């Protein structure tokens, strides 16, 4: 499982991400923001007390964040189809709580990022700090052209603060008759022959090809 530092570093490398909250009226709102620090307790973000973002964080206590690190330039092959460079997506979702100023100041001597936060808050006293402290998430690392490895996808899920996560991917039940039909249709190299066949969840894109092709109905989603 990824460490908190690794989760933060990935988000930090991405930079600005989409931060989504319930809007309090049955909908959701998203805006661009970033995590400015991490420690054993979680991932930290700042906002201002007059923003809808602040009210929504206070009312719901919920936050979902995602972002992508990729090459902006799209290259096309001889068939005029896009060639995707290797990249990754990160997403997390969970519960937030607001920190007191005393809590933020106590972290500053040990952490440069909190030191900057204290400096900024002195200039903008309406700043408020939250920590995403109980959450789950996923690293979705793709290499569709298989430049650096022999399969397209590596997914890694994680959870912190007592939250839980479900492993990714479809699964194959004992109804499998080992006909091999699914193998040819999986461009993610996620299916392993056997009796029954099996799916490597960390490689599975949940594209559904095996689900629809299986004559025995043996390829199913995790909830089934
Ligand atoms: S297509 Fe279905 S029955 Fe055939 S090998 Fe795949 S999972 Fe098993
Ligand atoms: S859902 Fe798609 S990626 Fe996953 S095992 Fe089936 S065919 Fe492969």
From TrEMBL:
Query: Which SUPFAM superfamilies does this entry report, sorted A to Z?
Result: 4Fe-4S ferredoxins, FMN-binding split barrel
Annotated GO MF terms: iron-sulfur cluster binding; metal ion binding
Which InterPro entries does the entry mention?
4Fe4S_Fe-S-bd, 4Fe4S_Fe_S_CS, Split_barrel_FMN-bd
Q: Where is the 4Fe-4S ferredoxin-type domain?
A: 166-191, 195-224
Q: Per its UniProt entry, which superkingdom is the organism in?
A: Bacteria
For this UniProt record, the keywords arranged alphabetically read as follows:
Iron, Iron-sulfur, Metal-binding
> Is this entry keyworded Protein biosynthesis?
no
**Listed name of the protein:** Pyridoxine-5-phosphate oxidase
* Organism, scientific name: Enteroscipio rubneri
